[in-house]
Task: structure prediction
Amino acid sequence: MSRVVANGKPVESEVLPCSLEIFLSDLGFPPRSVVVELNGKAVAPSMFAQHTVQEGDRLEIVQIAAGG
Result:
């Protein structure tokens, strides 16, 4: 099992390496409901399928909340 750091905490995943889109789905996040920084760089939701998450990567995942 591979490990990454997400939001400052170690996360183990059996799907790595994989696209960011698949990784987010594996964690239970609908991909279009979050903003992600991968290894210090912001990734647009439209690019989640083109970015690969690998063991040792660092992610910051922020869920978008609607409100008024």
